[in-house]
Design a protein that fits this description.
Helices cover 16% and strands 49% of the residues. It is of the alpha+beta class and 206 residues long.
């Protein structure tokens, strides 16, 4: 097809401009950076101390477009990567009254709704699946920071979030009510942009 006709030339210029706008408006996809991504929790131990734990192995992806107020998150957490700083306690928490890691080696999270509060904060609602039971949870994202990382020169986004859940929602009833039901959640994470995300990743983030 010849492009020497003025109307055809203008049409192609308009189409190219539209496609450029569409590309720029598309949400970027990021991969969670495992060494910097640690889902954590706090729970009161009797009335004496506060137990902290974190999961050291998490994988996942994020779709983010702050201009349009759209985002989505999917994550997979390895239960046996739990670290409370005391190996015998970690071993006990793998048992049936708690995480039952033999039957349920992973936890999963996928977002269902995100509301941004300016550019640096958001409310993230999603479904957490633990021990084969799914229940909604809400996280308050208290910090979002996106920039080019000086370490790898790639666009990176960092996040801080917190929330809470009741462990009985998931059948984690060990030592109830001697140990409290409510658990505080803390998430510190960063994610690095993916240049060519796979179809599987795109589908998961719809």
């Amino acid at each position: 097809m010849s492009l020497d006709h003025p109307k055809r030339t203008l049409s192609w210029i308009a189409l190219l401009g539209l496609s450029t706008c569409l590309v720029s408006a598309q949400a970027a996809i990021y991969q969670l950076n495992p060494p910097h991504t640690f889902p954590q929790f706090e729970i009161r131990h009797l009335v004496f101390s506060l137990i902290h734990g974190q999961f050291n192995k998490t994988r996942g992806y994020l779709r983010l477009n702050r201009k349009t107020g759209q985002a989505a998150v999917v994550a997979k957490i390895w239960v046996r990567s739990l670290d409370t700083g005391y190996a015998p306690r970690d071993h006990d928490l793998m048992a049936k009254p708690f995480f039952d890691a033999r039957r349920y080696p992973y936890m999963f999270f996928h977002s269902t709704h995100v509301v941004f509060h300016g550019r640096r904060k958001a409310t993230l609602t999603g479904i957490l699946t633990m021990r084969g039971i799914s229940h909604p949870v809400v996280l308050q994202v208290t910090r979002i920071h996106c920039a080019i990382s000086p370490l790898n020169q790639k666009r990176t986004c960092g996040f801080d979030a917190q929330g809470s859940l009741e462990r009985s929602w998931f059948g984690v009833d060990g030592f109830l009510p001697m140990l409290p039901d409510q658990v505080r959640l803390i998430l510190n994470a960063d994610a690095v942009i993916v240049q060519h995300p796979s179809k599987t990743v795109r589908k998961a983030l719809r």
